[in-house]
Design goal:
Helix content: over 70%
Largest sheet: none
Keywords: Disulfide bond, Secreted, Signal
CATH topology: Butyryl-CoA Dehydrogenase, subunit A, domain 3
CATH architecture: Up-down Bundle
Radius of gyration: 25 Å
GO molecular function: enzyme inhibitor activity
Order of helices and strands: HHHHHHH
Family: Belongs to the PMEI family.
Number of domains: 1
Distance between the termini: 72 Å
Number of strands: 0
Domain Pectinesterase inhibitor: 36-196
Organism: Musa acuminata subsp. malaccensis (Wild banana)
Length: 205
Amino acid sequence: MMGGRRWNSAASATLVILLIVFGFCISSCFTDATRIHADFIVSSCQATMFRRVCVDSLSPYANVIRDSHMELARSALSVSLSGARSAAAAVSKLAAEGTLAPSEAAAVRDCMTTTGDSVDELQRSLEAMGNPKGKGEAVVGLRLDDIQTWVSAALTDEDTCMDGIGGGRGMGGVVKVAIRRQIVNIAQLTSNALALINVLNSASP
């Protein structure tokens, strides 16, 4: 009986050691993979105009992006679309408040239209990129030129909104700052998405 207990103790100790080693290996491998994926994002963002924005906005998706330029471009589009929707909602809310001067209201309505167009164009682009599992890659290869056109149009719409609120149309300072903050953010995200799509297209056969 004593020998059996000693054997059980030794076996338990060995199992504990193996579990610790296994856990360490898993943790180490996971950390290394995450670091590699993060490095890929940092390196890829060098092709964009707003590099810090690019890295900060895409880093949370590192384990989805991994080392795929397709997933990188898709994630950038998704982030840009999310930002455009938030901006469009904010502008629409401001327009609905009814507290703006006539000149301000006109500029905000114009901005509401252009941000809505931007959302539509980014949505169309993201759908053309295929689903997150990577299906539809062949379709993407045929439509990257269209996607570039749509994303470029979305960026133009965002720039048009900024021009409208800063074009001397009587826009009050508080309103101008509130809208500009929203639009500048999505314009930077969209610019980065376009740059990453351009890289993807240039690498396509």
